[in-house]
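haha ok so turns out i had the wrong file open the whole time. this is the CORRECT one, sorry everyone. sequence first:
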Amino acid sequence: MHEMYDQGVAIQVIAERLRMDRKTVGKYAHAATVEDGPVPAAPASLAAAGMRRVPQHALAGGMY
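then structure:
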């Protein structure tokens, strides 16, 4: 990513090539090191966090 950015490739183009959000690419491209980049987000799935999804029909009945 840094190589492309240093060569003048636009952040939007880098994002498209890497299939990443342009804001994420921008954060990493402007960071001096990987450690300076963005903090990892919360787990993408509830299962990864050890949680389960409450069915929508359960919420409608006032159970929760």
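The chain is about 40% helix and 0% strand.
again sry for the mixup
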